[in-house]
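Dear V.,

Thank you for sending over the compound details. I've combined the ligand you provided, zinc ion, with the protein sequence from our construct and run the structure prediction for the complex. I'm sharing the raw inputs here so there's no ambiguity about protonation or stereochemistry in the SMILES, which I know was a concern on your side last time.
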Amino acid sequence: MKNVNSYLILVKKYFKKLKTELFAEVFLENYNNRNIYIRIDFFKKARVYKLSFIDLEHVESNDISVWVNSCNIEPNSIFLLESIFNNLKIQDTISKDSSYRVTINANTKNHVHLEFNRFLPLDLYSLTDFFIVIFNNCPKKYEGFFFELISLIIGNSNEFTYNDEIKFDILKTSLKKLFIDEDIKKGNDIYKEDLIKFLEKIENKYYAIIESVETYVVIIEYNEKENIMKVYSNCPCNFYCKHVAAIIIAIRDNFEKRFYKLTYDSKKNSFLEKLMHYKFFLCIGLQNEGLKILSKEGNIEIAPLFDINNKCPWSVIEDDNKKSLSKKIQTITLKNPLK
Ligand SMILES: [Zn+2]
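Below is the predicted structure of the protein with zinc ion bound, written out as structure tokens.
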């Protein structure tokens, strides 16, 4: 990784030279492995507000002007933002010990300095409008950051799909490129403590289930030729976390624990639509009279074992050595004669 901080200092110096008046700035630091610096300035000579953004990862020379992109901002947006900042209740730093940091500074009537990681805290929901203005004026590819930032507020932080592609050789690249030392250590513990209940590569994706406090799903889409990785997880951590580290450590150790595979015979069930469009379904076991199926969105869905006719429409096409799943299903089926 580049020396992001030294570039950030250069960027700030660059704006100082331009003699602009800083209105607000936001720094997405190590946010999903990216470092994006965005700011709104008042350009005194031209009497306009401009939003500028720079992806610090892509800076390749000290001539910052080449790497900064700017566009004019509607004065109305500035009034809106000003009132948001002036009415903001919390002005203290909300800092958590994480390297995945979002920092906001606003040079408004009451100076605002805020820090949080990954998700915009619920009590700061009024800042959603700030991010709307920011990301409306940024490239479309930054949209992912926006939805992730506000996902706690829109209530889907647990189902957040992480879509950013990163260059990472799943077998070779140093884990330190993505993970902090503590998460590598914890990831190793997760693997050693046998908490990875399933891990299997199907086509270009690794599917994994970790059973710790809760059941966590990790899916890693991997392009072997280009070494490009896309990670999904339903865990509540900051990316890239100990859960993802654990799975990569296990993959490097050639660990595999195959999923149960099932097919479904009856076609009239809408439940099917929610599930994976595969020739088969990935199953991690039973819960009462329901099958725990991994859906294509990466959620664990409970699928009823019996259909409306009280028949079991499921066929186990892959079981473990002890035929555990087939035996359990058989036991339940025997207890449930056709009604
Ligand atoms: Zn996690």
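A first observation: The chain has a mean pLDDT of 86.

Warm regards,
I. M.
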